[in-house]
TrEMBL record:
Name of the featured protein: 1,4-alpha-glucan branching enzyme GlgB
One protein family per Pfam: Alpha-amylase
HAMAP family: GlgB
Matches recorded under Gene3D superfamilies: Glycosidases, Golgi alpha-mannosidase II, Immunoglobulins
GO molecular function: 1,4-alpha-glucan branching enzyme activity
Residue ranges, annotated region (Disordered): 1-183
CDD domains assigned: AmyAc_Glg_BE (cd11322), E_set_GBE_prok_N (cd02855)
Species whose genome carries this gene: Streptomyces chitinivorans
EC assignment: 2.4.1.18
Keyword Lyase attributed: no
Quaternary context: Monomer.
Gene that this sequence comes from: glgB
Length: 917
């Protein structure tokens, strides 16, 4: 992987620092680090100017020789010998060191020469009196290399750490810092331990720059570094090494209202200038998340949550970087780990922002494309490495890291968006082509799909596509229904901007985009949402409510405001950030009922003693109300298979059961799908006994705003493809297939067809290879049969879109009237559809394999003649060619209770549409 020079501690070409598995045997205990000098214990200097303790030497009892203590950033005291006589000529060169000059003592002459330390480079340490270690003149002492523990890989972000404890940084080599840099009081041992262990709730109070009496205290946490220097106000000052990767020092900078601007010079190499990195200090920046954001998050009302949480590139005080934020209210601490710090988050602890449960850290130099996760310290002290729940981009599965994302896409669908809300969706044509993106044309990227899919869908006349799967998921075989990246388009086919390009191209071709959305449950992967901060956070705390009994997943805790906020904002996110035109919400029934797939004793009634999940009801109402308010023209559709009252009723309208409507725009008509297919799979001779299965849907057709789905669920797992469900030989199967599509397109409600069914694919769909496009290859002998069915679908959509009677009054009983609904022995169904202006269309389906000549059909009076606009038995579709080529004149003979009638020929296993001539 290419190194990031603005953020990684060393380059790929330079030697890697190694890590230690524990403390050095001879190292002083952590509690004593700030109170012991290189020659033993010494009196600690008071930062406020208190007197240091005097120490008598063991060799000579001399009253005139005292040890003077000087305050420093590490709390150690650098002792220097006082001359027997008070000589003003021999004084410390500390002041010159602060101004960027180092006094080096010449061994031969005893004279001092001042030398400027160039900014940004390591300065030579002064070889003064009582050095901590003897070093060559002008060179810094090199630390001994330490060993790497074999059970701690340098970079392994995919699994969690088995030992739940991050690797330990290098220890101090007790080398002195530049002269003139004071030492700070030692950190409290407990606070030091919390900082190093990743359980400190506010590392900014310890790290960074802070005003203290006499100057500014600088403290940095840089594991594996050999030295750290501060570059401030044109000077360079090397900090003291406190061990465990901590460096500190006090600089006597002038008192000012604001902190001085500074940078850190971090050296990882053994020699001065080797593997040095000049960088900003993350701990000099104030929180960039405002009080309003935190207030809205706490209330669960942040409708643009993706702008507040997650990884967001930004510029703070003129410094470019990325702000990391995550909601983990029960964590003892959170750190950021990524490819910019070799997946060791020790140096990047985050701060807790009050009682919001949000942790925040701005990392300078980290930009778009960086990989990251959150190292969370759980309440029991163990660690877990987690992907970002709000990540807007991920690695390609099976890799699991989150990716810092910044969109650079420019949209070109202004015309589409402006036109989208002009007409209510339930009063407009809506014909949906459902697409499984990875398998529609296997191997294509989003951008390659954008060059093929819009043209194909437009040619067939569909008004919308429904895409699955969109949100990131670890297992491709789940078809996207076990989501781990709720805010990230799947990386299998490209970047988020590549997905935007696909949506944009569809819009430019006049095609709306719906997507499958899965807010009911999530998988148990240990790197994702399950027990995210060590507690049941996104899932319910009651195991009986958390575990989904059917799918081995966890159900969201819809009663928690932050969780509802996470999902509601997610719905808005797809519509606003990716211009999605609608959400098909999966598994709504499993959300609505507490006893869904649970036996007696396995569930607890709600506060009213009922089986309704009141929390889920409130969530769905809030989601729909928010989406419809913020995103004009967008629709939501529920996959709901029960008789729940008011799925598509407005949320503020209370129904007979006492509930307000759920607020969806549409509901999948699962009852129609099951009933009609039960009828079609039977031999025609037996269909008369199941005639009501085709007519029953009209009993409840106007109770909701319906979509008639033949979806992916109906053509997998042994259910067979649509054409293969039909009885008889190949000709009869195709004829039934065509007749059924004609019936479906003319039935009240919108329609949805899964890919492959538009050309009568015989095999079940598989995500492994997608539709059998080879069936349309002219070299295949039966290609014409499949091409004929696709030609029919094209004509169905063309006539449908051009005929308001087929869609304008879909939700109004005035738009439908039976002509013949009881001809069970004939297997015939005939009905009228009306447009808002009264324009009619007659649909007649003959589901028997016999031709019915001169079949009487009652028609409205005042229309002298009718003509056939569609016939599924036409020869060009692969049919027998039986039809009504001329005008059908109405006569005065009453039929079906109407004053006039016509007598068309009904083709075998076919549907015909008639309109006024």
């Amino acid at each position: 992987m290419t190194p990031r020079p603005d953020s990684r501690p060393f380059s790929e070409t330079s030697p890697r620092p190694v890590r230690t598995g524990g403390r050095d045997e001879d190292a002083a205990p952590a509690a004593a680090q700030g109170a012991a000098g290189p020659k033993g214990p010494a009196g600690a200097a008071d930062p406020a100017g208190g007197k240091p303790a005097a120490k008598k030497t063991a060799a000579k009892k001399t009253a005139v020789k005292r040890t003077a203590a000087k305050k420093t950033a590490t709390g150690k005291v650098v002792a220097k010998k006082a001359a027997a006589k008070k000589t003003a000529a021999k004084k410390t060169a500390a002041k010159k060191a602060v101004t960027g000059k180092v006094v080096a003592k010449k061994a031969a002459t005893g004279k001092a020469a001042a030398k400027k330390a160039p900014a940004g480079k390591t300065a030579a340490r002064a070889a003064g009196k009582a050095p901590a270690r003897k070093v060559a003149a002008g060179k810094a002492a090199a630390s001994e290399p330490v060993a790497l523990r074999q059970d701690e890989p340098l970079k392994d972000h995919a699994p969690n750490w088995p030992g739940a404890r991050p690797p330990a940084p290098r220890r101090s080599d007790d080398a002195p810092a530049g002269q003139g840099v004071g030492r700070a009081a030692a950190l409290d041992p407990g606070e030091r331990q919390r900082l190093l262990h990743g359980s400190h709730h506010d590392p900014h109070t310890v790290l960074g720059a802070h005003r203290v009496p006499g100057g500014v205290l600088f403290r940095a946490l840089r594991p594996y570094a050999r030295c750290v220097a501060v570059l401030a106000e044109g000077v360079r000052a090397e900090l003291h090494d406190d061990g465990d990767g901590l460096f500190s020092g006090v600089l006597p900078l002038a008192a000012e209202p604001s902190m001085p601007s500074y940078r850190l010079l971090v050296r990882y190499g053994e020699e001065p200038g080797q593997d040095e990195l000049e960088t900003e200090d993350p701990y000099r920046f104030l929180p960039s998340l405002g009080e309003l954001d935190l207030h809205l998050i706490g209330e669960g009302r942040h409708e643009e949550l993706w702008r507040a949480l997650g990884a967001r590139p930004m510029t703070v005080d003129g410094v470019a970087g990325t702000r990391f934020t995550v909601w983990a209210p029960n964590a003892l601490g959170v750190r950021v780990a990524g490819d910019f710090n070799c997946w060791d988050g020790t140096a990047c602890p985050m701060r807790s922002l009050g009682g919001s449960g949000v942790w925040e850290l701005f990392l300078p130099g980290v930009g778009a494309g960086a990989l990251y996760k959150f190292d969370i310290t759980r309440p029991d002290g163990s660690h877990t490495l987690r992907a970002d729940p709000m990540a807007r981009r991920t690695e390609v599965p099976p890799a699991t890291a989150s990716v810092v994302e910044e969109s650079a896409y420019t949209w070109h669908d202004e015309e589409w968006l402006a036109r989208r809300a002009e007409r209510a969706p339930h009063q407009a044509p809506l014909s949906v082509y459902e697409v499984h993106l990875p398998s529609w044309r296997p191997g294509l990227t989003y951008r390659e799909l954008a060059e093929q899919l819009p043209a194909y869908v437009k040619d067939l006349g569909f008004t919308h596509v429904e895409l699955m799967p969109v949100a990131e998921h670890p297992f491709g075989g789940s078809w996207g229904y076990q989501v781990t990246g709720f805010y990230a388009p799947t990386a299998r086919m490209g970047t988020p901007d590549d997905f935007r390009y696909l949506v944009d191209r569809l819009h430019q071709e006049g095609i709306g985009v719906l997507m499958d959305w899965v807010p009911a449950h999530f998988p148990k992967d240990e790197w994702a949402l399950a027990r995210f901060d060590g507690t049941a956070l996104y899932e319910h705390s009651d195991p009986a409510r958390a575990e989904h009994p059917d799918w081995g997943t966890l159900e969201f805790n819809f009663g928690r405001t932050e969780v509802r906020n996470f999902l509601v904002a997610n719905a808005v996110y797809w519509c606003e950030e990716f211009h999605i035109d609608g959400l098909r919400v999966d598994a709504v029934a499993s959300m609505l009922y507490l006893d869904y797939s649970r036996e007696s004793g396995q569930w607890t009634p709600n506060v009213y003693g009922g089986r309704e999940n009141l929390d889920a009801v409130a969530f769905l109402q809030e989601m729909n109300a928010t989406v419809y308010r913020r995103c004009p023209g967008v629709i939501t559709a529920a996959e709901e298979s029960t008789a729940w009252d008011g799925v598509t009723r407005a949320t503020h309208h209370t129904g007979p059961g006492g509930f307000g409507g759920l607020g969806f725009g549409f509901k999948w008509n699962m009852g129609w799908m099951h009933d009609s297919l039960e009828y079609m799979v039977r031999e025609p001779v037996h269909r008369k006994y199941h005639h009501n299965e085709m007519t029953f849907s009209m009993v409840y057709a106007y109770s909701e705003n319906y979509i008639l789905p033949i979806s992916h669920d109906e053509v997998v797992h042994g259910k067979r493809s649509l054409v293969s469900k039909m009885p008889g030989d190949w000709w009869q199967q195709r004829a039934d297939h065509r007749a059924y599509l004609g019936f479906m397109w003319s039935h009240p409600g919108k329609q949805l067809l899964f890919m492959g069914q538009e050309f009568a694919q015989g095999a079940e769909w598989s995500e492994a290879h997608g539709p059998d496009w080879w069936l349309l290859d002219p070299a295949y002998s039966a290609a014409g049969d499949h091409q004929g069915v696709r030609d029919l679908v094209r004509d169905l959509n063309r006539v449908y879109t051009a005929t308001p009677a087929l869609w304008e009054l879909d939700t109004d009983p005035a738009g439908f009237s039976w002509i013949e609904g009881g001809a069970a022995d004939d297997n015939v169904f005939a009905f009228l559809r009306y447009a808002a202006d009264g324009s009619p269309l007659i649909a007649v389906s003959n589901f028997s394999p016999v031709v019915r000549h001169g079949y009487p059909i009652g028609v409205p009076e005042g229309i002298p003649a009718w003509r056939e606009v569609l016939n599924t038995d036409a020869a060009r579709y692969g049919g027998s060619g039986v039809g009504n080529p001329g005008a059908l004149k109405a006569d005065a003979a009453p039929a079906h209770g109407r004053p006039a009638g016509i007598a068309p020929t009904l083709p075998p296993l076919a549907t015909i549409w008639l309109v006024p001539a």
